[in-house]
Amino acid sequence: MTTKNSLLRLSIGSDLEQVDLVGVVIQSTLEQTAVDPDQTHWLVMSVREAVINAILHGNRQDPDKRVLVEVDLDGPDLIVRVEDEGQGFDPDSLPDPTAPENLLRSSGRGVFMMRQFADSIEYSFPSKRGTVVTMRKRIAPPQEEESK
Amino acid sequence: MKIEVKHREGVTIIAPKGKITIGVGDIALREAVHQALEAGAANILVELSQVTTIDSSGIGELVSAYTTVTNRGKKLALLNLPPKVADLLQITQLITVFDIYDDEDEAIKALA
Q1: From A91, B65, B93, B106, which residue has the greatest number of CB atoms within 10 Å?
Q2: Mean pLDDT within B37-63
Q3: Which residue of B has its CA nearest to A107?
Q4: Which residues of chain B make contact with A106, given a CB cutoff of 8 A?
Q5: Inter-chain contact A104–B97, Cβ cutoff 8 Å?
Q6: In which order are the strands placed within the sheet that holds A120-124?
Q7: Pick from A48, A107, A116: which is nearest to B60 by CB?
Q8: Which residue of chain A is at minimal alpha-carbon distance from B52?
Q9: Domain total for chain A?
Q10: Residue A5: pLDDT above 80?
Q11: Which of A48, A103, A104 lies nearest to residue B55, judging by beta carbons?
Q12: Chain A residues touching residue B91 (CB < 8 angstroms)
């Protein structure tokens, strides 16, 4: 059984200017948990993409709505949870940005990029509470886990 | 984010430095490409060696620049991709769309 350690809980306004702040805070948090720099880079990028989606597509930049970012350690896994107060969406309806007909589109790659770098991504839609995206990424070497 | 623009053998070289991310570098890059086209640029080379971070908006802006330029019958190529930018272009399969060079002379020769 593993213990979940809360590393960070951040509530921000629905303003894109907050995205850099989130990135800096997440980076600092990950650096303190000995995540290697390469993984940190991609994790920060993935969290930024999730927060951008929450602000733009979830809360539609409504200044009265908040985005909540939580980072936890669950054994060897880093869990990032980004929650907005929007209307939710169907993640299966997102077009594949690598399909030939979408390759030259100027947008629509954020969730795809998050899926490439996370071990798993889940969406949930609590009633009347917007979208919650939960990303899980293993940050400890596998042999370390086996020796436990 | 700063963008340096220079000209060589009729090719406009646009060199962004820093982040190409939402709301900052993406808009600056768009404006640089539009200004180059309005100034009569023939072909454009985007030199990326000094780019520290790029996100999906930045990638989207590179695609927009590519389509804007090619729709005018001109060419846009990329030069000196940092490893993480190259990784993202590979993952998004845009590596197949762009002409990519790691040697400026070679790129200029292809675009001039």
Answers
A1: B65
A2: 95
A3: B60
A4: 60-61, 63-64, 67
A5: yes
A6: A4-13, A66-74, A77-83, A132-138, A120-124
A7: A107
A8: A41
A9: 1
A10: yes
A11: A48
A12: 113, 116
CATH 3.40.50.2300, applies to B2-111: no
pLDDT (average), residues A38-53: 94
Q: Residue B90's closest chain A neighbor by CA?
A: A98
Structural domain of residue A9, as residue ranges? 4-146
Residue A143: the pLDDT is 44
Question: How far apart are the C-alpha atoms of A99 and B23, rounded to whole Å?
Answer: 26
Q: What is the pLDDT of residues A71-92, one digit of tens each?
A: 999 988 999 999 999 998 888 8
Predicted ipTM? 0.88
Residues of B within an 8 Å Cβ radius of A? 21-23, 53, 55-57, 59-61, 63-64, 66-67, 84, 88, 91-94, 96-97
Q: What is the dihedral of CA B14, B20, B22, B24, to 10 degrees?
A: -70
Q: What pLDDT, on a 0 to 100 scale, did the predictor assign at position A146?
A: 46
Q: What are the pLDDT digits (tens) for A123-136?
A: 999 877 799 999 99
Å between A75 CA and nearest CA of chain B: 28
- CATH, residue A126: 3.30.565.10
Q: What mean pLDDT do residues B79-93 have?
A: 97
The domain ranges of chain B are 2-111
- % of chain B exceeding 70 in pLDDT: 100
